[in-house]
Specification:
With 140 residues, the protein is mostly helical. The chain folds into two domains: 58 residues; 46 residues, no CATH class. It is 50% helix and 0% strand. The longest helix has 14 residues. It is elongated. The chain starts with a helix and ends in a 17-residue tail after the last helix.
Length: 140
């Protein structure tokens, strides 16, 4: 939860330094600096209007973030990716590059792409093929 109002109050009413604000509110020093810098850039003055809630303050300080708070990603076609990976010359890296070319704005990072592929792979049912005994193993 953001503490924008508290940060502004500590700075303007109590006159605390960035470090003092960070210690008082148990937040990072960089967070205090960032929020106060953003408030200055947004033209916020003290006292702020009482009807301005934390959510509205957050939108003023972080205008590039989507209003919904959730980012949507294009889901890769994991069954097709799995089939492509059976080709010895194909790699996850190449498939991810193709995926990002198709989805430059809403595509997963390579790490997330691999993570989600491995999760998908783990949910697939394994075939119940009979186990062939190796050397020295008895047949049951």
């Amino acid at each position: 939860m953001r503490k924008i109002k508290d940060i502004l109050r500590h700075r303007h009413e109590a006159g605390l330094s960035y470090r003092g604000i960070a210690q008082s509110l148990s937040i990072g020093y960089g967070t205090a600096v960032d929020y106060l810098t953003r408030a200055k850039q947004a033209g916020l003055s003290w006292p702020i209007p009482e009807d301005l809630c934390e959510r509205d303050l957050g939108r003023l300080l972080f205008p590039t973030q989507p209003v919904t708070g959730q980012r949507r990603f294009a889901e890769p076609d994991f069954p097709a990716i799995h089939l492509e990976l059976k080709n010895k010359t194909m790699t996850k890296q190449l498939l991810w590059q193709e995926y990002r070319q198709q989805h430059p704005e809403d595509g997963y990072s390579y790490a997330q792409f691999c993570h989600r592929y491995n999760e998908w792979l783990g949910r697939q049912q394994r075939s119940h093929a009979p186990v062939t005994p190796g050397r020295g193993e008895a047949v049951r």
